[in-house]
Specification:
Strand content: 15-25%
Radius of gyration: 30 Å
Helix content: 25-40%
Number of helices: 18
Number of strands: 24
Largest sheet: 8 strands, mixed
Length: 599
């Protein structure tokens, strides 16, 4: 008989009744039922119920053993009586009458309960993550993550992609976040950077003559944590392809993504492939965001003309003040009650807005302050444009779109959820395409890259040379795209700019001369001068996919050893102060930050 177990704790069934077995695991729960002691024994695979009779010599020892102690038992598999079968447990038809009991590792008093999974402060959970990971939900999430990775690998291999690993110690690259720097011992005063993404290397792999690359890539970014973004590090399905157009990338990664979701979605619906294509401008117009939650059917519309020169002076004056201002309507099907409208208005005020105007559509009339001010004819025109019927409502926001759209996007989602018209049992996937190549940097009053500086502009060099004004530059689209699901950006990608002449011109428009391009990106630029294939790819965030599939709202619930929101590893104590010898070897002197005194 094996030293620790003949079976695992999720394995025993009716066919094993009568066998003598040995199990090892953690004491999940103990119960005393009229002299008999019951233990739920847990290991990685599941639970088995143990029964300890009072005449056993080790009975007192079992009474004393704490939860989460590791024990080894031997005993006979017996069938449970019909009235005590546990249908929710795979092993629920049997139990073990134990004849031998050993404590392999005694547990101290627990700082964090495992059984029952009660809510607990995050700092305690992070400090004792090994206990947290024993909880069923978190344990299942981590196992799901592993299965998702395998499904991704299988899908990519089936599509002809090859797994390559790219360097971890590398040079700084412009991915939009702060780098983590690593000091060089051999080169005093110089630093490596941890890769924010394998962007440059995967493009160089294409230049090197390999055709289809992928990896489950670690990425490092010194940025603040939030619910859907890890502090410090994360993993992504990274891929690149040669001699492709945008649709080729979609046809490679889209079915793999769909299959991964379908495999682990359970009863939830998943968008069939091909996914919808939504232009960036349309996404901003209809949903107020470039990562729309398409489970909500509500689409916003511009209704400025109905308020221009109207009796509602607030909106009319906003429109007159700036030609870029507009009035945006958010339909609320079934929301035509004063109570609901007041609740939404109060919600908008908590978001920092003065409120939201609204109209209530009744049979033969339109109610509310806005309708009263602009009159019945204009109000009916609004109803007709929005397609509203009796019992519906609509909310209105006015001003510069870039200032109110973040709240408008949230309002659309909230209305859909509150009115229960959002399909919570589905995964709605889509591609957002045609991102602007450039955007306006208000702080520096200049044109800047809007997304990825290495993307191919639509129209190529001709489009860049034809543009003469800032407005012309801002109108240029790029072959950039995002894949979104249920309000989250799962990943981004692009058809790359593989021609040095286009790259020089694209950077020049953003205010970067040739010398800057050669200094910052000389390695890739030089490679392109020796024959670069047209290529493109994308990357999908692993943690966000698992977070959605596991019905979690925080990415730390699907990460084995995450940092907290302050980017601290409470388990091992990172970041930590280096010792004097480490500082000496890496030629570093720590300068404490200067704290300004208040006057």
């Amino acid at each position: 008989m094996h030293a620790y177990r003949t079976h695992h704790c999720g394995e025993l069934r009716q066919p094993q009744v009568g066998e003598t077995v040995r199990l090892s695991g953690w004491v999940h729960r103990k119960r005393d039922h009229g002299g008999l002691l019951f233990i739920d024994l847990r290991d990685h695979y599941g639970l088995t119920q143990l029964v300890v009779e009072p005449e056993m010599a080790f009975f007192a020892e079992v009474e004393r053993v704490r939860q989460e102690s590791v024990i080894r038992v031997e005993g006979k598999v017996v069938a449970r009586e019909a009235d005590v079968v546990n249908p929710n447990l795979p092993t629920g038809e049997v139990e073990i009458r134990i004849t031998s009991f050993d404590v392999l590792s005694e547990a101290d008093e627990l700082p964090l309960p495992v059984f029952g999974e009660p809510d607990y402060p995050e700092d305690i959970r992070m400090k004792h993550r090994y206990l947290d990971l024993r909880r069923d939900t978190l344990h299942a999430n981590i196992m799901l993550r592993s299965k998702v990775v395998k499904a991704m690998r299988d899908g990519m291999e089936d599509k002809g992609f090859t797994d390559f690993q790219t360097p971890i110690l590398t040079a700084s690259s412009p991915e939009g976040a702060r780098d983590f720097l690593v000091p060089s011992r051999l080169h005093p005063g110089k630093f490596y950077a941890l890769p924010q993404a394998p962007q440059i290397f995967k493009q160089l792999i294409m230049v090197s003559g390999f055709d289809r690359y992928y990896q489950i890539a670690p990425c490092f970014r010194d940025e603040d944590a939030r619910a859907d973004r890890s502090a410090g590090e994360f993993y992504q399905l990274d891929l690149e392809m040669s001699f492709v157009e945008r649709q080729d990338v979609f046809d490679a990664v889209g079915p793999v993504t769909r299959d991964v979701f379908a495999k682990f979605a359970g009863d939830r619906k998943v968008t069939e492939y091909p996914f919808p294509l939504i232009a960036y401008d349309d996404a901003i117009l209809k949903y107020g965001t470039d990562k729309p939650d398409l489970r909500c059917p509500i689409e916003m519309q511009i209704v400025s003309d109905h308020f221009r020169g109207s009796g509602f002076k607030v909106f009319a004056s906003i429109l007159d003040a700036d030609p870029r201002h507009e009035i945006r309507a958010i339909p609320a099907p079934g929301g035509g009650s004063r109570a609901f409208c007041d609740r939404m208005n109060s919600w908008a005020q908590k978001q920092g807005l003065p409120g939201m105007g609204y109209m209530i559509f009744a049979e033969g009339e339109v109610k509310g302050p806005l309708a009263k001010n602009i009159g019945p004819e204009r109000s009916e025109a609004v109803r007709e444009q929005l397609g509203m019927k009796a019992g519906d409502a609509a909310f209105f926001l006015a001003g510069k779109p870039s200032e109110f759209l973040p709240v408008a996007a949230k309002a659309r989602v909230k209305i859909g959820e509150d009115l229960e018209i959002t399909d919570k049992e589905s995964f709605e996937l889509a591609w957002i395409i045609d991102f602007p190549m450039y955007e306006w940097d208000e702080e520096h009053k200049k044109v800047e890259f809007g997304h990825n500086p290495f993307s191919m502009p639509q129209g190529g060099l001709e489009a860049l040379e034809a543009a003469k004004t800032d407005e012309d530059y801002l109108a240029i689209k790029a072959f950039q795209y995002d894949i979104v699901c249920n309000g989250y950006e799962l990943g981004s990608g692009a058809i790359r700019n593989h021609r040095p002449d286009i790259m020089y011109k694209a950077f020049d428009i953003a205010g970067y001369g040739n010398e800057v391009v050669e200094d910052k990106f000389g390695g890739m630029l030089n490679a392109f001068k020796y024959g670069a294939p047209p290529h493109g790819g994308c990357a999908l965030g692993l943690e966000r996919i698992v977070m959605l599939l596991s019905n979690q709202e925080n990415i730390r619930e699907v990460t084995m050893f995450p940092m907290n929101q302050q980017a601290e590893d409470l388990l091992l104590g990172a970041p930590a102060e280096p010792g004097p010898e480490q500082l000496k070897e890496t030629h570093i002197k720590v300068v404490p930050p200067i704290i300004e005194k208040k006057a």
